[in-house]
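Risk register update: the risk of archive-format incompatibility is retired. Evidence:
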Amino acid sequence: MLLEPSASFEALQRDFRWEIPADFNIGRAVCDDWARRDPDRICLEHFSPDGRHLSLTYGALAAQSSAFAHALVSLGVKPGDRVALLLPQCFETVIAHLAIYKMGAIALPLALLFGAEALEYRLSNAGATVVVTNAFGLSRLAPIRARLDGLRHVVSIDPADAPVRSFATLVEQHPDSFDIVASGPDDPALMIYTSGTTGAPKGALHGHRVLAGHMPGFQLAHDFPPQPDDRMWTPSDWAWAGGLLNALLPSLLLGIPVVSSPAQKFDAHMAFRIMAEMKVRNAFIPPTALRLLAAVEQPRQHYDLVLRSIGSAGESLGRETYEWVKTALGIVPNEFYGQTECNFVLSSAAHLGVSKAGFIGKSVPGHRVAIIDEAGHELPAGETGQVAIARPDPVMFLGYWQNPEATAAKFVGDWMKTGDLGRQDEDGYVQFFGRDDDVITSSGYRIGPAEIEDCLISHPAVRLAAVIGKPDALRTEIVKAFVVLQAGFSGSEALASDVRDWVKHRLSMHEYPREVAFVEELPLTTSGKVIRRLLRDREVALSSG
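Archived output:
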């Protein structure tokens, strides 16, 4: 399941074959196997703002996760049951994940940023039997607990009153070795709900093979790790596929220490401090976070950075952000692509010469990605269509939880439809235009928002931007931009006009935003993607009102 370093990307694509063991358990692969070989090897480090950083070895991780696996069994959890994790980045999150995999249950990671309604929907829909959380999570659960009929136990990593169980006590009370259940690659391991940028979130169920399927892309995005002193950090919530499967679990599988950091609103200076202080060599940083980092001028003069690789995904990186990373951080970022349902299938690999500004990259060895039309036919190079992934594929979901209709609708033939628009050039590079739902129809033109947003953030006054189609009687829709300004700038009609002209002169007359709204912030998912649907719904409501 690992790539052998090669002189060329083409050779890797040609020669790679999947070899996933018939008995494959994520808990064993990322922890217990290492604990047997090298129990004193550091696997986790936690950044503390007061400088009192913590660390954990593979041996300790194996012992504590085995004890918690026993604890889950003692609470009546059976293989196939869903155990929710409502936790920040911390050691207990990893311990709980591995315990769930070891005893054959299904991990259900949830973000602490979810409100009561979002939590209730996911916990009820999944039928979670246990929730592992902290004090903040307990406050989130309190107003909905009585309505969660299937929830039998709540476990807290922080002190709490009965009937809430203590995580630490449960670990202390049980043996530190556990007979890992026999599990194959297709046995369910975890379920991650789609971000809900369009429609109701759906639970994407994955087998243990999902981790194996991520490894070739992870290796390409970080220049064939592990290398000496490699250390991984991501600001992304481990409840998101990006944080969990693009950073945490692949790193642990390869013996790379993972840095965790306290949950907080993203702060550029704190992010640089974490990377400098913890000697982070590898980072997964989504595009929005990279754009926020750009607010720090000449970061290498202020912070002692030792970064050697940056991977980025979740939305379009864009030329401007790509060039900023190259110039400001001295690293060519490797953009990659996937969805909750099927992740890390396209990637750049700058060290192998696969990197082009404005393009995601090429199909990762072991995965087949194409641009298709509505009937499922592959389109030739240069034509715009929907990005699709061929099955079977180890990173592809087993199906949507208790929703076979939605699962079937996700496919046309053997192609899994992503709902994302793109095109492929003659060299195999894929360019991402945005979700099909986000495409703007104006005066007969179909306009993707990503290129306009990328152009907008190149304006010296613009910090972040989102573009939607606003209903218009004459043109069907017009392009409207929502802009968060850099510090020191104030919104005005003169600035709005300048922003419009900026796009008009750099892209085209039909793509420039006819309306510009200056806002304090943009609605984001927990994974850092702009929820354009909320902006569109707001405009539709105003238009109809």
